[in-house]
Design brief:
The complex is a heterotrimer of chains A (about 170), B (about 750) and C (about 190). Chain A is mostly helical. Chain A is built from six helices and no strands. Classes of the chains: A mainly alpha (about 170), B alpha+beta (about 750), C alpha/beta (about 190).
Chain lengths: ~170, ~750, ~190
């Protein structure tokens, strides 16, 4: 019974967790653009003249002008996507926080996961070979005795283990 | 006069370090102990020499010698004396001398140790560190002389080391002054800490090179340098955290880390350094992974040098970057030399480094450490690609791109989550995981499947499918993650089930009360899991010791940690990482902000807080050439009055040219608690009218735990790194004994 | 990033792995070296032949009624290219002088002034132009296409190109007097 409980309880908890998730993505938009509306878009854009600074926190005069431009565009009824589009067309892709998914930029989206997967594969294969007991060469690493394979445990730990077993 | 003296000493120390290289090399060639000893003494001489030179520089800085170009660039009459001293590392030329000075100090320290058992390493350690030192000194002497004077010729005013023909020394009336951003206390210690971390990694690297050159590729070099690398890691971490704190306090963007290329350049050696700390334990215990450890040490040092180069040569575009500098090509040559020499040596000695490796199971301790290394390397790959890609794009297509925080966040967060999971099972591995669980019995396809799921999920994640949380791909990813969790829980059911239960309960509770953000829930689940497992480990071990040794609980705890400093220091570091994770999750996922213009007496509301604008005043401080604008706001939570905050805007002026006033600095008013930070910035104000001021207000939940975690982190590292009586000599013991009564765990 | 297979002691690194490592290293170094070189070049130096480019002009700031202007159309004339931006304070120092010089040289038909508005917003740029009464051809360079060609290091910068399309003088920073500007133009006139 207890054994089952160990499995059932986490499963139950996780099911509850999934149930507890409610996805809501409705965004309310006011009519007159507030500073917060402007910042919400400026946050996603990067200053075209300074390096790696989001437009909403950039203190330069140039950025203040760009925020005003966003405010104007919002007042004219532009959508977020239109504004971003405008910035990309005028100032180039560097205003976006990440490279757009096109052309050479795919490198940035494909290369790291490819390298990581390759690394994982190589590691997995290497580990599989290591698990097959190889012919031991006494010369190379004689100090390595098979016994040391048991994770090192100091005396206390062995004692704890015993203690714990007794107390259970 | 003083300047000539300082420059002369700098030249002498360069010559001394070059002599040290030559003497050590000849000493090895002709087998002369005397020559090597002479090289060692020369090495020891460099630090006092550079100290004298640095004192000359400080003298010039403090005494307003504006005819010296560097003094003119970084100080002004209005700066207090302590800032004039710290201006030493406030600019390229001075900070290079500072770097050399630290480098010489570390090199001297290491040459002072007892060398009896490691005679053959000595000359090569001297060669590697002296070459590095000579290189940095050469940059100061040839390209970035901090003692260069301003000379007026008919072509204009320029800095020269030696007086050009038909010139007179030009002495400006006042200096330009230190960049105001660098006047913050955090900024005064952040660069030295970072440099300390960078510089101290030279020592493990020098030993690794010595081991490769001499062919003595046993564990000796690892045993000598493991504490060095721990201290180096401490300094580097401290430097990174201080940089974060400085950004939070001064930069006024409500954050602490911006995934800026220069930040990442400092973060990358930290990643490999951390991987090294872990994998080195396996080599110490089991003699495995020699080749891999060598790679990690070389990589760490290479990243230090490469990152410094990228930042200082002006190759990277960044807010932190130094202006384009003449050291570029020379530095580039050194980087190339370092990389080529290291790789060539490594390839040459590769066969000698081999050690047979065997593994009891895919989930043995060794395997877990390897997984940990894989994950750190993965984060490194992400960072490296992110830093380098803009250069590629600019060259190949001519268009600049920003690889910014959104990209880094989505690419690294799953990796960090997996690292957290590894931390959760780390303590279990020391309890003889494989023997208890008989995990090797699990058939391999199942295991492969379990490992494949997170990888597939990760690949999906890369395509940003999770952006559409509500849509079906989002659901697939969520299900995949839940499946992984279930699978892993099943694997570790006996050891993890209680902790997992508590963690699930926390996540369920949060999902109903606080957030429906899946990432946050996974994050808090993992944090709880790690905390539960690690704290239970402390609890269990202390109780057991208490029983075994008949000690009281506190004593048992202290002795336990004291006897196994590395292991329990490590666990304390894991706990501190989780506290930091709480802060990071809080600010990253739940930061709220609002901005608005209010008249005096009016208020802005955010997340339960009311921020009422009381007053704003602006005044000049002519003696420091700064204009302060300070607002007063009252903070209420509901009806409760919490106090006042004083967000500021400081505007520094350089000289009399009011037109070139530096960018204003926004100093936030911050009301900090364990629950959240109320972070108020003064954005704009109307000087005379009543229409008021514009404030930007952030509420940063839980961010304080980031700093609390950092403090605990330092305690943990210091416990782990604290020297034993004679750490280097003890441990050759015990290889071959089944059990190791060790503090070196 | 590759893991090592440590099964067989005394085995060297396979040749193909060595080749891959060195090629990657070489590639990285080349990339960095080229970038470094680019960063250190500074702006285009006098004596260089300026390649042709086309600037789209703001409405109301056309050149002889055309809304686009190409450098190749201006052979035989001295071309003064001024990079500026409305958010740039030092630019304001020289704006009046530029306009004054344009008023003198423009009517001769031997000199053309071109204002290149560097990474700016059009409404602010127009306010700036009106404020200083500027009426020589002006156009935006929002995506830094033209400024990258000149490898400008900031604003304001002014480039003087002679009748054959060769760069003859570069002024970094604002002109302090109209005389300085005048003498540079006169030096290029026959």
């Amino acid at each position: 019974m207890k054994r089952h409980l160990r499995i059932v309880l986490p499963v139950l908890a996780l099911t509850l967790l999934v149930a507890g998730l409610a996805f809501n993505a409705a965004l309310a938009q006011g009519s007159a653009p507030t500073d917060d509306d402007v910042n919400a878009i400026a946050k996603q854009l990067y200053c075209p003249v300074c390096e790696n600074t989001p437009l909403d926190v950039c203190p330069t005069e140039a950025c203040r002008q760009w925020r005003e431009l966003i405010r104007q565009q919002l007042a004219d009824g532009w959508t977020e996507d239109q504004i971003k589009q405008y910035f990309v067309e005028n100032y180039g892709a560097r205003v976006l926080g990440e490279p757009p998914r096109s052309g050479l930029n795919w490198v940035v989206y494909l290369l790291p996961p490819a390298l990581i997967l390759a690394g994982a594969f190589v590691l997995f294969r290497a580990m599989r070979t290591w698990m097959k007991p190889t012919v031991t060469e006494p010369a190379a690493g004689a100090a390595e005795t098979p016994q040391s394979a048991a994770p090192s445990q100091d005396e206390y730990i062995s004692k704890f283990e015993e203690e714990l077993r007794k107390r259970k | 006069m003083i300047a000539d003296f300082g420059y002369g000493i700098l030249v002498v120390s360069l010559l001394v370090s070059l002599y040290s290289v030559g003497a050590a090399l000849t000493g090895v060639k002709v087998k002369s102990t005397a020559l090597v000893e002479s090289a060692r003494r020369a090495m020891l001489l460099t630090w006092p020499l550079i100290t004298v030179s640095a004192l000359a520089l400080i003298y010039l800085l403090v005494n307003n010698h504006y005819e010296i170009s560097f003094v003119y660039e970084v100080t002004s009459r209005s700066m207090p004396t302590y800032l004039k001293i710290t201006a030493w590392w406030g600019g390229q030329a001075g900070s290079l001398v500072f770097w050399s000075w630290l480098m010489a100090a570390f090199a001297s320290l290491v040459t002072l140790r007892k060398w009896d058992r490691d005679r053959e390493f000595l000359p090569w350690v001297i060669v590697v560190s002296s070459v590095t030192l000579a290189f940095f000194l050469m940059m100061s002497v040839v390209f970035e002389n901090p003692f260069a004077r301003l000379y007026q010729t008919f072509e204009g005013i320029n800095a020269h080391t030696f007086a050009p023909a038909d010139s007179v020394v030009f002495t400006p009336a006042d200096g330009r002054g230190l960049n105001p951003l660098l006047r913050h206390p955090g900024m005064i210690i952040h660069p030295p800490m970072l440099y300390l971390g960078f510089v101290s990694y030279v020592i493990p690297y020098a030993f690794a090179m010595a081991a490769l050159i001499t062919g003595r590729t046993d564990d000796r070099w690892i045993r000598i340098t493991r504490r060095w690398s721990l201290w180096a890691w401490l300094f580097l971490s401290f430097g990174l955290v201080l940089g974060g704190r400085w950004a939070y306090d001064v930069l006024g963007w409500g954050g602490y880390w911006g995934w800026d290329p220069v930040e990442i350049a400092a973060f990358m050696p930290w990643l490999t350094g951390t991987a090294f700390l872990h994998s080195v334990m396996i080599q110490e215990k089991r003699g495995q992974f020699k080749q891999w450890n060598m790679i990690l040490v070389i990589l760490t040092y290479a990243l230090v040098i490469f990152g410094t180069f990228l930042t200082r040569s002006g190759v990277l575009s960044s807010v932190h970057a130094f202006a384009s500098s003449p050291i570029g090509p020379f530095f580039m040559g050194f980087v190339a030399l370092t990389l080529i020499a290291s790789i060539a040596l490594l390839i040459w000695r590769w066969p000698d480094l081999g050690s047979e490796t065997e593994m009891k199971s895919m989930l043995s301790r060794e395997a877990l450490f390897l997984l940990n290394n894989l994950l750190f390397m993965s984060v490194l790959v992400v960072c490296f690609v992110g830093v380098i890609y803009p250069l590629v794009s600019e060259l190949a297509t001519g268009s600049k791109v920003t690889v910014g925080p959104p990209w880094y966040e989505f690419s690294t967060s799953p990796l960090f989550a997996m690292l957290m999971f590894l931390m959760a099972i780390a303590p279990l591995s020391s309890w003889g995981l494989s023997s208890q669980e008989k995990l090797s019995n699990i058939n391999k396809p199942v295991l492969g499947g379990i490992l494949a799921v997170p990888l597939v999920a990760y690949a999906l994640w890369w395509n940003r499918i999770t952006e559409m949380m509500g849509s079906w791909p989002g659901v697939v990813v969520s299900l995949a993650i839940v499946l992984i969790a279930l699978g892993l829980m099943y694997l570790f059911r006996k050891l993890l089930w209680q902790a997992a239960l508590v963690a699930s309960a926390v996540a369920v509770y949060l999902s109903f009360t606080y957030t429906t953000n899946l990432i946050a829930l996974i994050g808090f689940f993992l944090v709880t899991l790690v905390l539960m497992v690690t704290l239970r480990e402390f609890w269990r071990a202390t109780r057991a010791r208490q029983h075994a040794q008949q000690e009281n609980f506190a004593l048992a705890f202290i002795r336990l940690v004291g006897r196994n400093r590395r292991r329990y220091g490590g666990y304390i570091i894991h706990v501190s990482m989780m506290l930091m994770a709480i802060g990071i999750l809080g600010i990253e996922l739940f930061q709220k902000e609002t901005q608005g213009q209010v008249a005096a007496g009016e208020a802005l509301d955010i997340a339960g807080y009311t921020v009422q604008f009381e007053d704003v005043a602006s005044w000049n401080n002519p003696s420091e050439q700064v204009n302060y604008t300070r607002a007063v706001v009252s903070i209420y939570k509901g009806d409760q009055y919490l106090g006042q905050l004083y967000p500021r805007k400081d505007m520094y002026f350089s000289d009399q040219q009011m037109t070139t006033a530096t960018q204003p600095m926004s100093i936030p008013g911050n009301l900090s608690s364990f629950k959240d930070d109320l972070y108020v910035l003064l954005v704009d104000w109307e000087p005379a009218s009543a229409s008021g001021a514009t404030f930007k207000i952030y509420v940063n939940p839980l961010v304080n735990w980031l700093w609390i975690g950092s403090l605990l982190f330092f305690i943990g590292v210091i416990i782990a790194a604290w020297p034993d009586k004679d750490p280097e000599y003890a441990p050759a013991r015990a290889r071959g004994k089944a059990y190791q009564p060790s503090s070196a765990d | 990033m590759t893991e090592i297979n440590e099964t067989a002691p005394k085995r060297g690194v396979p040749l193909w792995v060595q080749i891959v490592i060195w090629v990657l290293l070489l590639g990285l170094m080349a990339l960095v070296a080229v970038t470094l070189n680019k960063r250190q070049q500074g702006s285009v130096q006098p004596g260089a032949q300026i390649p042709d480019f086309t600037l789209t002009l703001f409405e109301g700031y056309e050149y002889e009624g055309k809304s686009e202007i190409s450098l190749s159309d201006l052979r035989g004339k001295v071309v003064v290219i001024n990079f500026w931006a409305s958010w740039c304070k030092p630019c304001e120092q020289e704006a009046a002088e530029l306009q004054q010089a344009w008023a003198e040289f423009g009517p001769t038909g031997q000199v053309v002034f071109l204002g290149v508005d560097y990474v700016d917003t059009e409404p602010d740029a127009r306010v700036y132009l009106q404020k200083f009464g500027i009426d020589f051809p002006n156009g935006p360079d929002m995506a830094t296409r033209i400024s990258q060609m000149f490898r400008t290091t900031g604003v304001p910068e002014t480039y003087f190109i002679d009748q054959d399309g060769v760069l003859r003088y570069v002024k970094v920073g604002p002109f302090t007097s109209a005389d300085e500007l005048r003498s540079q133009i006169n030096a290029l006139l026959p």
